[in-house]
Amino acid sequence: MYNFGIAIHGGAGTILKSKMTPEKERAYKDALSIALEAGYARLSSNGTALQAVEDAIEQLENSPLFNAGKGAVFNAVGQHEMDASIMDGKSLHAGAIAAVRNLKNPIKLAHKVLLHSDHVLLIGDGARQFASAFDIEFESDQYFHDELRYQQWQKIKGSENFQLDHAREDKKYLGTVGAVALDQHGNLAAGTSTGGMTNKKFGRVGDSPIIGAGNYANNNTCAISCTGSGEFLMRASTAYDISCRMEYKGLSLEDAAREAVMDRLTQIGGDGGIIGIDRQGNITMPFNCEGMYRASKNQQQTVIKIYKE
Amino acid sequence: MYNFGIAIHGGAGTILKSKMTPEKERAYKDALSIALEAGYARLSSNGTALQAVEDAIEQLENSPLFNAGKGAVFNAVGQHEMDASIMDGKSLHAGAIAAVRNLKNPIKLAHKVLLHSDHVLLIGDGARQFASAFDIEFESDQYFHDELRYQQWQKIKGSENFQLDHAREDKKYLGTVGAVALDQHGNLAAGTSTGGMTNKKFGRVGDSPIIGAGNYANNNTCAISCTGSGEFLMRASTAYDISCRMEYKGLSLEDAAREAVMDRLTQIGGDGGIIGIDRQGNITMPFNCEGMYRASKNQQQTVIKIYKE
């Protein structure tokens, strides 16, 4: 039996202990724990890595704390447009959706694309039309309304500014959620989901629904989910870059991820972090900014962290 | 001075000499030559690789023979939806657009995204809105009407079938155009443009606008443009895979491209090919199907080919 396990993230960026109250910290950790346990329970009961990834991300999407699903930010016209992707490390099949509105759980639609479509990426109204053949839940705009995020949007609405989720005193929290898992059969999977950037316009799509950029899984190497400044993660193909450094340079997951995030991504000016797991169940969660909401669990230990340590 | 040069493609797939008339063959070769010379002229007069790539692709987009720009196929509702991307190997900046209608030259809008946006990928109506700030030409539906492509669409309209450009007797021609160039200053660039798949629906987006999948450029390694079954190229991150095999395995461009196309892409069942150029001006144009419309030119030689040789 493989050393199964799961890692999740709820976004990275300027997350400072000095700005956090004990209550808020508790709320974030509780939300991470719920998602972590949902995914781990699936693995413990011999479920697939793919399903564990979906289960964990579903919980993160259902929390108002993270920029995905219910907590998705407002775009330039006050809507919530969501992106998500999921990849199966065994078959190398993938599914992704971008710029879809009113989806309760974007990760579930991405999973349907993986399972029931010859395509990898479906966008906008077309993806919504694809969803109609399946039991996919949509919610009213009211479901996604959050007063804090609404105020964030009001502050920059009508300006040329974009914000990666919300800026606190001009600091950035780069909102995305993700999960990676290794199941008892040795199969890897990765998933990523986001509401994008506050006040985004022009149909901007970031790294989260892009296979190789924000998400990648391959049983021969690793499963990776990224969070951070999406444009930089796209230009660096960060998720696949980690896999290539393992496959072609023979690096460990930890070394490959460190090079990709601390060297490559940092060199081009990108902020963010990744979670990764390999075939042996090794887990790594590096980031090059102040903090990353993150957690991991296997038979040996449970980790839930926010700041650098 | 660097050994500047350019390579272009007009798609790959089941292109059989037995199905081609001398007149058609001449028309394709003439169209490739016009694009090749446009890009090469830019390089000869000390222009940038980026501009040479745009110039060559503009000509391919203006030809009705290739599935991009004027020759774009019909989607499921009789529209022409286009995708394109361009990347600068010097800065690693990139611009891409997807699912934009009525664009005369999609590559020009992708280039505007690269130059004038903090974003990498803009889609649909949002990308169209972004275009309005620039001198970007739009054309009527009539401009894109082509009787042959219309008949291809009529054959499968209303069915669940998708075709990669057009099937001839159930054989596939996988339509995309692309260009890669090295300029006199040693800078690399890559561009890709497509009209997608005949009868496509659900907002399907393929590899062409995805940095790392259908397009990639990095002065440290190579510039790559792909064509073929887009979903497989996305799952294999083919363009970035070639760069990684050079950077991390120390392979030549030719060996890296051969491994990525003949081994990796073929193993997962994908059809297609790539054009690539490296910092030394070496050019490679491998494909794993019957043919690929392709051409290259540098100070030593001019090549224009269609079939396997």
Please tell me about this protein's structure.
- Two copies of one chain form a homodimer.
- With about 300 residues, chain A is an alpha+beta fold.
- The first copy, chain A, has a single domain (about 5-305), classed as (Glycosyl)asparaginase (Glutamine Phosphoribosylpyrophosphate, subunit 1, domain 1, 4-Layer Sandwich).
- In chain A, helix 1 (about 20-45) runs antiparallel to helix 2 (about 50-60), helix 2 runs antiparallel to helix 3 (about 105-115) and helix 8 (about 240-250) packs across helix 9 (about 255-265).
- Chain A is about 35% helix and about 30% strand.
- The longest helix of chain A has 23 residues, at about 20-45.
- Chain A contains nine helices and 17 strands.
- Chain A is globular and about 50 Å long.
- In chain A, the strands form three sheets. In chain A, strands 1, 2, 3, 4, 6, 7, 8, 9, 16 and 17 form a ten-stranded mixed sheet that branches. In chain A, strands 12-13-14-15 form a four-stranded antiparallel sheet. In chain A, strands 5-10 form a two-stranded antiparallel ribbon.
- At the A-B interface, strand 3, strand 4, helix 4, strand 11 and helix 7 of A face strand 3, strand 4, helix 4, strand 11 and helix 7 of B.
- Strand 4 of chain A pairs antiparallel with strand 11 (about 205) of chain B.
